[in-house]
Structure to design on (300 residues):
C-alpha cells in the first residue's frame, strides 16, 4: 500500500445483486477493481421471482453445489475481463466440516485463495465459553482442510457472533498457523458491535490479518424521538438507538484513518467493497469506491 497505484481492490458480490457474474466482471474491470469475492449460497426457488436483493435473489451468487458448467461460467466471466477470483464467501455454520470442505474444493476450482469459515452466533442463549470451545474444535479441522486444499480460511469480525472485535477474533485464531487461518477485518460491522481502536486491533492481529471489507454504518435514535424536545430534555427518558448502513464516506468509520492504520501495519492485501447503503446504482457504486480509496490514499 505504498501508493494508490499499488492498491488491491476487490468487490464482494453480495453488494451487487442486480448484476450477473458476466455483468459484474465487466463493470469491475471498467471501474478498476481487480478482485472478485463470489457470494456463495443456494438460492431458494421461491426467491427467484423476487426483485434482486443482497441476501435474497442475488444474481451474482455461486451455488455451493455448483457443477462443472456453473463453475466454468464463473471462471469464464472473470477471465474474459481479466479479473481475479480471490475468495468464495459462503454462510457456513460453525461445525459444518463437510460443508467447509465443499467450499474449499469449489475455491480451488475457481483459483480463489480464501473462503469464509463459520463462527458461532451469540444471542445470550448459550455461554460464550462453550461456543468458544466449539469454534476451536471446528477450526482445528478447518486448518487441516486449508492445508490440504491450499486455501486460507478466514473468520470475519461480525456483530452477533463470538468474534465481533479484532481482539475476540484474534483469540479464536491465535493458536493456529496464520498461513491457513486468518481474520477478515470489517470495521463497518464493528460499528454495530466490537469497536476497538483500529490501529491497536490491526497491530494485535498481525500476520492473521488476511482481508479487509470496506463498508460503513451509523447509529441514530428513532426519528420521532429525535424530534421530540421532551425526550431530548429529559435525561431519564430512554432512547432506543438503532444502527443502519451508511455510504462509505460518511458513516461512523473514519475510513481515511483506517487506511492510515492499515498502511502503518504494512497491510498489502485486498480491500473488498461491501456497500449496503444503496446510495448509488451498482456501476456508480463500483467507480465511486475506486475514486474514494484512491483519493484518500493520495491524501495520506
Amino acid at each position: 500500500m505504498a501508493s494508490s497505484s499499488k492498491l488491491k481492490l476487490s468487490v464482494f458480490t453480495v453488494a451487487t445483486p442486480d448484476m450477473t457474474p458476466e455483468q459484474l466482471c465487466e463493470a469491475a474491470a471498467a471501474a478498476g477493481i481487480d478482485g472478485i469475492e463470489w457470494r456463495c449460497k443456494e438460492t431458494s426457488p421461491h426467491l427467484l421471482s423476487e426483485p434482486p436483493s443482497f441476501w435474497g435473489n442475488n444474481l451474482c451468487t455461486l451455488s455451493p453445489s455448483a457443477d462443472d458448467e456453473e463453475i466454468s461460467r464463473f471462471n469464464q466471466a472473470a477471465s474474459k475481463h481479466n479479473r481475479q477470483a480471490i475468495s468464495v464467501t459462503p454462510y457456513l455454520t460453525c461445525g459444518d466440516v463437510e460443508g467447509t470442505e465443499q467450499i474449499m474444493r469449489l475455491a480451488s476450482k475457481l483459483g480463489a485463495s480464501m473462503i469464509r469459515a463459520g463462527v458461532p452466533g451469540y444471542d445470550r442463549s448459550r455461554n460464550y465459553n462453550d461456543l468458544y470451545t466449539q469454534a476451536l474444535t471446528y477450526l482445528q479441522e478447518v486448518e487441516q482442510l486449508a492445508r490440504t486444499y491450499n486455501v486460507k480460511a478466514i473468520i470475519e469480525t461480525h456483530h452477533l457472533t463470538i468474534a465481533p472485535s479484532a481482539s475476540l477474533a484474534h483469540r479464536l485464531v491465535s493458536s493456529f498457523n496464520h498461513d491457513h487461518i486468518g481474520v477478515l477485518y470489517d470495521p463497518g460491522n464493528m460499528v454495530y458491535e466490537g469497536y476497538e481502536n483500529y490501529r491497536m486491533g490491526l497491530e494485535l492481529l498481525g500476520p492473521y490479518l488476511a482481508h479487509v471489507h470496506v463498508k460503513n454504518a451509523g447509529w441514530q435514535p428513532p426519528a420521532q424521538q429525535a424530534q421530540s424536545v421532551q425526550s431530548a430534555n429529559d435525561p431519564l427518558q430512554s432512547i432506543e438507538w438503532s444502527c443502519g448502513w451508511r455510504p462509505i464516506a460518511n458513516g461512523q468509520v473514519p475510513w481515511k484513518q483506517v487506511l492510515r492504520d492499515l498502511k502503518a501495519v504494512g497491510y498489502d492485501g485486498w480491500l473488498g467493497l461491501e456497500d449496503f447503503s444503496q446510495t448509488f446504482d451498482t456501476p456508480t457504486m463500483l467507480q465511486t469506491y475506486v475514486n474514494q480509496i484512491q483519493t484518500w490514499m493520495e491524501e495520506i
